[in-house]
Amino acid sequence: MEDRELLEKAMETLRSFVLELSKKAGKTPEYGEELWERIRSSNGVLRELAYFHDYGSFYGKYQVAGYSLTDILVWQVDHFKAYMDRHEEMNRYRTERLFLESLDVMLKMEQDPAPYVAKMQGETGTDFADKY
């Protein structure tokens, strides 16, 4: 098999992976396709996805404005603590959704990191003294 064919096969495998994650996350096929198109245009996010596909863990090497995919995921988990009493909005049992949302945030940060950096630095959950 030629290099080009191998690359196309790998890209199709990752596309199918994103679509399957989207389905498991309760998202539409259109969401999965749109996210895939954005992922494939970002070498850094594509590399993170490929590593997660192959090893089931985060690569964490690619950063935008000093934040890795792991940083984004931790922020999301902390941010969504406020929703723990609303079952339909909970992400803690939807690892696929959290992962996809992390990829989505990283892609958005590539375009304009400032709003996300401000949120990550300002939204810290409710687990510290003197918050209120």
Notes on the protein architecture:
This protein has helices at 3-24, 29-40, 43-55, 69-79, 95-111, 114-122; strands spanning 63-64, 67-68. Strand 1 (63-64) and strand 2 (67-68) form a beta hairpin. With 132 residues, the protein is mostly helical. The chain is globular, with a radius of gyration of 16 Å. The protein has six helices and two strands, in the order H-H-H-E-E-H-H-H. The protein has a two-stranded antiparallel ribbon.
Strand order of the largest sheet: 1-2
Give me the Rg, rounded: 16 Å
The portion of residues assigned to helices is 55-70%
Instruction: List SSEs in N-to-C order.
Output: HHHEEHHH
DSSP summary, beta strand count: 2
What is the average of the pLDDT values?
A: 85
- Count of alpha/pi helices: 6
Domain tally: 1
Ends apart, CA distance between termini: 61 Å
Notable features of this structure?
132 residues, mainly alpha, two-stranded antiparallel ribbon, 6 helices, globular
